[in-house]
Amino acid sequence: MRTIKPRYTEAERKALLSNLVIQVDKREKNNNHILDFFEKHKIQYEERSLESGDYNFYIKQCSELGIMWDWWCDNLLVERKNSLDELANNLKEERFFNEIKRTVDMKHKFLIIENGSWEDILAHKYQSQYSEKAFFSQLIKLMTKYDFKIIFTKNTGFMIYQICRWILEQEILK
After folding, report:
1. Which of 5-14, 64-73, 130-139 is the least confident region?
2. N or C: which end of the chain has fewer CB within 10 A?
3. Residues 6 or more apart from 128 whose CB is under 8 A from it?
4. From the CB of residue 20, how many other CB atoms can be counted at a distance below 10 Å?
5. Domain spans of the chain, in order of start
6. pTM here?
7. Where do the H-state alpha helices sit in the chain?
C-alpha cells in the first residue's frame, strides 16, 4: 500500500528544513569542527545518546505543516571515522561488525571517513599494519553485504547536513 504524502510549496519546504535538528551522539569524540560548521551555518543540533551511529536527525513538531509531533528518522545511520587508522582498527574488531549487523534493516546507511581516500588506502597512507587488500575487502563487504554508502570527505559537517536533507527529501518531501 502506498503512503499518501502531502505536497509542499517551496515556502513549506523551507519551513520543514528550518525544523530539521541533527542528532549528535554524546559519545562522539573530536567533532568540534563538525559542531562549529553547524553553528556557523545555523544548523540546529542536539547531543544525545544514539543507539547506533554517530549522527541522525528529526523534524520538530510543526502543526501548520501537518507534522503534529516530532518526526524521528528511524531508518538512517551515519557513522563517522576521523581517520583511516581509526577505521582500520574498527574493521579488525568484532564489536564493530556486531553493531553493523544490528543495522541490517535500516534503509539508509552511510560511513563517512575523514582524512583519507581509496587512493590513500592503496598507498598505505595510514599507520596501522592492516593490509591494503584486507582494508579494501572489508570496505567492499560493508558496501555489498551491509549496503553502506562510503563517503570520503574533508567537510564532514556539510556532508552530514546534506545526507539528512537528502533523506528528508526522500522520506517526506518527495
Report:
1. 5-14
2. N
3. 84, 85, 88, 89
4. 20
5. 10-173
6. 0.89
7. 10-18, 32-40, 84-91, 94-101, 118-122, 132-144, 156-168
